[in-house]
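Message: Just now I want nothing more than another pair of eyes on a protein record. I am handing you a single protein, as its sequence and its fold in token form. As I understand it, each token names a local backbone shape. Take your time, and here it is.
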Amino acid sequence: MEDHDIIELYFARSENAIEETDKKYRRYLFKIAQNILLDILDSEECLSDTYLRAWESIPPERPNRFAIWLGKITRNLSVSRIRYKAAKKRSDGQFSLALSELDEVIPTRETTEETVELKLLADAIERFLYSQNEEKRAVFLKRYWQLMPVSKIAEQLHCSEARIHSMLHRLRQSLYEFLMKEGFFQ
């Protein structure tokens, strides 16, 4: 079923909307949750919460890129769960490791600064990613969006972990230089 048809099911308040969403996107969404949480039960719960959030949000929302929209919900729910677990001194999966790799590249704010700044930063990172070739962009997104372990990325791309580590290191350096030029660092 096409995304626009699934979204129409949500607008019609048909319970088939969740079933069709699950059929089409379960593997993709589960992979996002599992890469962050490293726990099957927590990942399943995040999927259920994702479907509930979609049900509550559509209508009035009408996502243009449904898969990305769902992925963002799943990722945010998983990150929230991992933060809760980290606060309770439990497991933190790939989340802390992936974010620590980006710490020196992306400026962080201790206080809540303007949302505009964060939007500008997100736009700059998006422009940077679109300036990269498809393989580099995919590696970056798999690592820092899906929080996929380097070993899994290497396995999927049929290359060594050392190559992926090297590529990620060079991408972080390039991102830092790009953000310098964009005025995010002084």
About this structure: Confidence is low (pLDDT under 50) at residues 109-113.
